[in-house]
Amino acid sequence: MSSLKEVCDGIPDPLPPRRQRDETVPHAPVRTPDLTPAEQRLALQNALRYFLPNQHEVLAHEFADELRNYGHIYMYRLLPTFDMRAYPIDEIPGRNRQAAAIIHMILNNLDPRVAQFPQELVTYGGNGQAFSNWAQFWITLSYLSEMSEEQTLVMYSGHPMGLFPSNPAAPRLVITNGMVIPNYSSREMYEKMFALGNTMYGQMTAGSFCYIGPQGIVHGTTLTVLNAARRHLGTTDMRGKVFVTSGLGGMSGAQPKAATICGCISVTAEVSKEALEKRHNQGWVATIANNLDECISKIRHARRQKEAFSIGYHGNIVDLWERFVEEYENTGDLLVELGSDQTSCHNPYLGGYYPVQVTYDESRIMMHEDPIRFKNLVQESLRRQVTAINKLSDLGLYFWDYGNAFLLEASRAGADVGRDESATGTLFRYPSYVQDIMGDIFSLGFGPFRWVCTSGCPSDLDTTDEISANVLEDIINEGVPETIKQQYNDNIRWIREAKTNKLVVGSQARILYSDQVGRTKIATAFNNAVKDGKLKGPVVISRDHHDVSGTDSPFRETSNIYDGSAFCADMAVQNVIGDACRGATWVALHNGGGCGWGEVINGGFGLVLDGSQDAGDRAQKMLAWDVSNGVARRCWSGNNNAEETICRTMDQNKSLKVTLPNHVQDLDLLDRALQE
């Protein structure tokens, strides 16, 4: 029986007894790396490097079985047997609080209540790994528990490269995930490199150890649904309005909760019975419909009652969209006003999207045993789904892409999504939610700021909720532009209602959207509360990589960048470097996340507020950069909101000097000059 302390001591000798994967709980689909015999040999050799030579004989045969059966060597023998959860920081072995706080975050990422496939170290998104194998987990915790403030742990795609001498001002942890030479950043190469143990897809907050469960996206989804109703339905009263989407496995599990907070009716399709029941048991889905007739009946009843209500449909989203078309054709009733999709389409052929033509169980077998046929079925299913959505859109449905590569993969499948390539970027028939809604919020400097109370005490979370709401109210009272005031008011309401909405799954964490001023003042107030003993332990501040500055993604975060630079990744890379230079406790830079491998570069940070003056100074400097970097880039691309925001920030901080664009007033000049 392993304990947290035993794991922090490193890989044991002798080894624990062999363990098999538990088939009774959700587990990751079998991977299909298509390795040659020489590559299989190399994968096995690479895996054995973590173990003493006297352990190789027994492990070689065991790992060969895993490679054959699952397409990857996860090292199930090392599955910890202790209760995996975010232990209070005072119970975590270690020589310093910063490293202990990182362990707290890692344990939360792999908590079975939080993680999607914890046995395979997948936190969310179908293949968003915290580590590539369990040996990496044991070694990483061992390093963190022994490290001093004069050392930095360096991690290459889940692999703990080692503790290197540094200094107290340096990050305690530097992570890179999936950093591949660009010409080799293809899905096929990824599968090989992952199987070889050389790289890893860390999604966003999976591989950076900053995931806080589905709450992490609830607030953003709430804002998206609310603003979609404001802009396209002309109302903020969503009673009786129906929002239809799919996916409940990981972050997508936030959708029904967000819709309920908005006051509308949500219908979320999910093919996995285990994922659906997990969200239902957690209270994130109110009721389950096991067939289409039952689902339609529940929708009609909820529409009549005009009640905020969440329905989890156990079935395929394509069947549901096609049934809505059928209902309209038979009755003249359009039963859905808003629609989106949160299947993991960044990974469509390995469990991210399940085709309508076959069952869930049949799909999980076919994707491994007959991947070509499976891919064809997925693409046919995507075409059918888009055809139904298009018909409903013509009748009044407002549909948007949630940045999960749904429209990108649909276009590659030949679906009618109206893909239009231009010098400024890629446009589809349906906008990305960033293009249409969240992009303006990012340009104001607002994004998903979050924190974790490492004491594990719910009372600490209550205190931080109160502190953050009071800080935002004070900022409003000092006077802010109307556009900023609306954002603050939305977030004050969010925080005041957060406990009632029961958002916590796993660590005692919270998220809100704030700008640079709000983030720095909230962080300062938290640090002071730790110093004064109002909080029982340090607070980790962080954010989603999906933020103002954290991600370059032409089909999501930077889809509203129209100067032709949407495919450039300088912003995300500079952000991580800048955070490391200004005091982050740890930083991470990833290939992939959201829209998938090769489609995104993103990064994030964690910063431990321990009540010290040093922590307060770090927060001030780092958060100012972490927001202004992205606002400056968006300003240079021509966004008016961003230009107003960065100019206001320069007025507040005379040390900040940003290059502003000189806009071309006479656009006809461009044509005249080119025609000469």
UniProtKB/TrEMBL annotation:
Q: Name one GO biological process term.
A: L-histidine catabolic process
Which catalytic reaction applies to this protein? Answer: 4-imidazolone-5-propanoate = trans-urocanate + H2O
Enumerate the cofactors the protein uses: NAD(+)
Region described as Disordered: spans on this chain: 1-30
Q: Where is the Urocanase Rossmann-like domain?
A: 213-437
Q: In which pathway does it act?
A: Amino-acid degradation; L-histidine degradation into L-glutamate; N-formimidoyl-L-glutamate from L-histidine: step 2/3
Q: What class of enzyme is it?
A: lyase
**The Urocanase N-terminal domain covers which part of the protein?**
84-210
Please provide the record's keywords in A-Z order: Histidine metabolism, Lyase, NAD
- InterPro entries attached here? Urocanase, Urocanase-like, Urocanase_C, Urocanase_central_sf, Urocanase_CS, Urocanase_N, Urocanase_Rossmann-like, Urocanase_sf
One Gene Ontology term of the molecular function aspect? urocanate hydratase activity
The record's EC number reads: 4.2.1.49
Q: Which PANTHER family match?
A: UROCANATE HYDRATASE
Family note: Belongs to the urocanase family.
> What's the name of the protein?
Urocanate hydratase
